[in-house]
């Protein structure tokens, strides 16, 4: 029996989806297939509130319109909005890479820190920690000043930037580092070598945690916050057909 | 000199937009015009996470595509997502009715409580209070079990439901009550009469607070969380043309 | 119909009362009259706990003894004690400039910071934020090392000091600045020009927010923390005659 | 060598001062003299914000005007304002009975609860816990509906009321009870007998803790919040002569 | 390549160790071996602070003295002390079932609740949540009044007790339930059937999360809280030989 | 009538026990005898989680096996685990020097800071503050980089290290300093002289606070977290005989 996990990229860049799915597949168990999902609309990268909120809707739309069966969804937008909506939308387990990375970091160290892309992404990460309930374990969130779209242009330079910013985060009191962007996926090993601390790649961990929940037969709770929506609502707008029809 | 305030309904029901704009206009100063805005896409009412997140994107799209000048935006979706995105999108003051109602309640009492529509809306309100930073002042959030779409069907019955649930909230220790849905706008006076405590209608207060910020010449801060997005991003999707082109 | 707002200075310096009332009047709507109130006793300036607590009593005494009718009270002592007592004392809306400034800052930015006069005033401001429930939104409180009594001696030098300390507060992570003393009222525009971020003058905002509550017919909640005192208590002391007789 | 501790009643009722000083003296070590201090002005009892804030000023005035030397001050107003001001005013240790009772309760149990006089006193107690930093250890604060002035009228009835309300507090999850009024001083032993849990009388504990700090040669810190005021300020008002002249 | 996970029972009951290891093995992937570890000293069950703290030391001693290689440790004492010590002691990943269960619950619902054995275990669970940093997500912790040693005596009666207490926890606002004792391992499926919400068995989840960290090559951070101890300390006591010699 | 207080050293170094008991005796009232207790097993010093958790068990074992009567226990391991277990074990008052020092610091200043021995001890101190509920009053915890075992080797050098680190803590915003190791006991006066702020020695304060609780007849609450253990449990392990037999 195989497990299928959708790795939902938050932006519309298919190359990034492919990269995320690749890292996720590498991290997965033998029997797991990781399928990348790219939203049909929205920005080519998400680095702030406007883009984050648009992607939240677009990712739900994409997953709702996904024709094939799947066992879990990994939401591959670090610090981005939407995990609660996805949990209301579907019954399968939903693992946000922000949550997975933070929870893994809490298992590996006493205080963690986060390195993200641009300063504009930091406030949304703080909000995500606040509603997640783990803000007290975080010592700092810092930006490496690398645009999402530029991560892969010069991977050595990206690694250098993460190393430098990572050292600042460790100096803030962290003993474990979280990679604060899905685009950084796969860089954890190199950074562990450079920094000498555990470095958590949320995509990899989220795939493993999603597998874990699937293997144990767990489903999203549907008696409270994530109870299905009323079926009889009107929905306007051409692009949301799948979302409208889903429940 | 007149002030124009956009009152952005979060759902696609034009009747509700009209009602919100009407209450907002009644609450406004003589020189203020309140203009209702209805998203072009999304659900006919928002009562949970899926709908809330879709409306966040749709409301930004609607405001970005609004052709005429305006001085401030009131976001008339209680507990709904999106205020941070709107603040990044535009430079004019943005007042979420959740914030306005909560801040007014903190000025009028020591501990407040909220009555909303359906239980599915409660978790999102808690999240909104958490990121707003005022959760410690809130004693309880309760649902009157009135669907947004049914509020106006029998206004006396809605008032009765709010009164009953309001009494439970007061028994939880609140000395001021917040109406937890834009659709309840205009019911504050009747409920004050029945309950003997201040009852805050976020639409009315938000219009007044938005006027205040405009009158004082205040604009949204653009050096941190709400700095404008990079202009060169690709945007996919037919409905987001205005949003894409805005900055 | 006109609205009368009492702007209660916390110290006994009539020149500062006049300045506060002047800024408040400038900020007010056309139909509003701002009337300055000066306590009959207490210190000539409040920059720490002893003075703050004395002014809390003296300001209540002054407002209780105010002979003419009024519609709301603005408490013009930033970070000073007393707002809860005033809310118990009277039924009209009470707006502390600390609250008004903080709430406005939360509408204009994601994280705020405060510049106050002397270091001795900082702890009281932290306490005020703690009971207000918004401490989590504040990044730092710093002192410009300008005595209250010296603010007006050399306004250019005061502005320079605020600018320098303001830059340090912004470097702490704030994207909006709050002026942490009623004596700084009127300097917000100049500092916005210098710093490029929204700068909030609590006196101006408090007058506008108080007008808002009056216009909407709101009164302080009287069923809990602010229920009237028992009428039959003995009061000793010559200066508290008005306070004793008020209810 | 004897130790002199001022037990400062917060109200102007000399009988209550005598009762407080009596309980304090009974609780004290052999070498300690407890001297009651009664404010010269203010209310005959404090059961809410107005009265609490007036007593804060009046108690400082009374202690500042106390002619004889003393080694420490116990502030015998449970949940009342003023401890921070007293710490700025004098160099000797200052122990608020709220603090002493709460700290002792934290040593004797895992979660405490408080029984106070009237509901109007509860919000101020919550504020005191918030600035003290121990709110998380408190399970509930409940009122026995006994006016301060009526405590001694029928001591058996007062004990019955405390027992009943105390049982409700224990049912809220507390394993130690705090007497939330200086007027309850001396009732702890009887209530321990009835309820089977530790019952903390703040007056007794505060006297002991104050003795402890004196014995160890401790003084209030004067480099931060409690640094002395500037000496050159003007003070208006006949009753505050001692306060004005103190530093 | 196989993965070996030590499942460390916190008490000295070998039957419970066998049961825990059995549930863990059932939950594990094909290539994983779960090896039960029983402390050589300490209580036969842990239901409060004394026992919890003894087991923390005894479990470290048992793992330190474990002769065979292993890849990770699962600490199978719900709410018990010790995870931080184990993380300092060894370099392999350490997963406390309290953490694993809580993190999984946060992925499956919006607010969780916990059902434990006896009331005496509740305070330690609250402390564990406090240091873990997720207390804000927990709605209630309740005891089923089933002694650890009696869980297996009548498994139907245990399930009934968990169901009843679980319903109370759900009524407190939880939408996912956590089994608050390693001895409850294996009852999650039956309770899900009865209660209609996700029920999390920490042993099963912890094994899966430990596997995940091992598969991804993660190790405990050793630059901060969990840096190895100084090697040159004296250790007294016959039973702690292995612990003393470990580093 | 004399009072006997056990001062329980957390490590197995009898010289440190003697030093602690000596400082405690010097701080005590005339009628108090301070008796040092040394655990029979465990590490010669505790500077991190492994050692802290072992000492928690060993100290309970030592006190449980103490043959002579006593009136209270002072737990002389700063930031170490175990106070809750001791409170469950015995009925007499238990005062952890961490609690005593922090509570005294809260009475003497507005914000405190802590100087401890090694960086490895800092995380445990943060955890202790978190469960104690006073973390919000603490500005920083810093290590002087002095091993516990080296404190007495060169007391002048130790004082110099504390002074330097203490200045850094004061610069972090503290106005009172806490000595974060029982081994620092007795250095408070010298550091007060050098730093000009109150410096709190937890051993001295804990002895005084323990005396206070004894004098007032207080006992640990036994209806909740600290209710006695079930008597019928099996205990394995030769060294825990006294602990097993105690209740």
Taken as a percent bin, the fraction of beta residues of chain A is 15-25%
Total number of β-strand segments of chain A?
A: 10
CATH topology of the largest domain in chain A, by name, is Rossmann fold
Q: Sheet with the most strands of chain A?
A: 4 strands, parallel
Shape of chain A: globular
The most extensive contact between chains is: A-B, 53 and 53 residues
The chain-level mean pLDDT of chain A equals: 93
SSE succession of chain A: EHEEHEHEHEHEHEHEHEH
- Low-pLDDT regions of chain A: none
Query: Quaternary arrangement of the chains shown?
Result: homohexamer
CATH 2nd-level architecture of the largest domain in chain A: 3-Layer(aba) Sandwich
Number of helices of chain A: 9
Instruction: Order the strands across the largest sheet of chain A as they lie in space.
Output: 2-1-4-5
Helical content of chain A (DSSP H or I, runs of 4+): 40-55%
Termini separation of chain A (Å)?
A: 26 Å
Q: Mind telling me the CATH class of the largest domain in chain A?
A: Alpha Beta
InterPro entries (chains A, B, C, D, E, F): Asp/Glu/hydantoin_racemase, Hydantoin_racemase-like, Iso_Racemase_Enz_sf
GO molecular function, one term (chains A, B, C, D, E, F): amino-acid racemase activity
Family (chains A, B, C, D, E, F): Belongs to the HyuE racemase family.
Protein name (chains A, B, C, D, E, F): Asp/Glu/hydantoin racemase
